[in-house]
Amino acid sequence: MKGALLREISRCSFCGFCEAACPTRFMIKRNYTPRGRINTIIFALKNRLTTIESVNGIFSCLECGACKPYCPAGIDIPRVIREFRHLVRVEEVGVLTQEVK
Ligand code: SF4
Ligand code: SF4
Known about the structure:
4Fe4S_Fe-S-bd, oxidoreductase activity, 6% strand, 4Fe4S_Fe_S_CS, Fumarate Reductase Iron-sulfur Protein, Chain B, domain 2, iron-sulfur cluster binding, single chain, 4Fe-4S ferredoxin-type domain-containing protein, 4 helices, two-stranded parallel sheet, binds iron/sulfur cluster, mainly alpha
């Protein structure tokens, strides 16, 4: 699952076309947009680790699907987010709950 997911999101060019459609983009933080979420997921899958702030960005997705038609790479962004949430829940990806200094 992780390999297939990573292959799919590796097609992301970070063009940002998905950004304007996302209702959570007004939450300001970079991770709270589709592009930010994809970026977070790429990093987390490669390192098998993410941060609590990044996880908050992922779990704030409404799964509304508004971003999906705008992706020229054909990435099914809400499904990717849903699958990543599952990986976090089953602890396939670890979550740092404290800042590392
Ligand atoms: S539209 Fe697709 S390729 Fe562009 S930033 Fe969003 S997820 Fe990545
Ligand atoms: S599915 Fe998630 S990332 Fe996509 S537009 Fe909706 S809230 Fe934003």
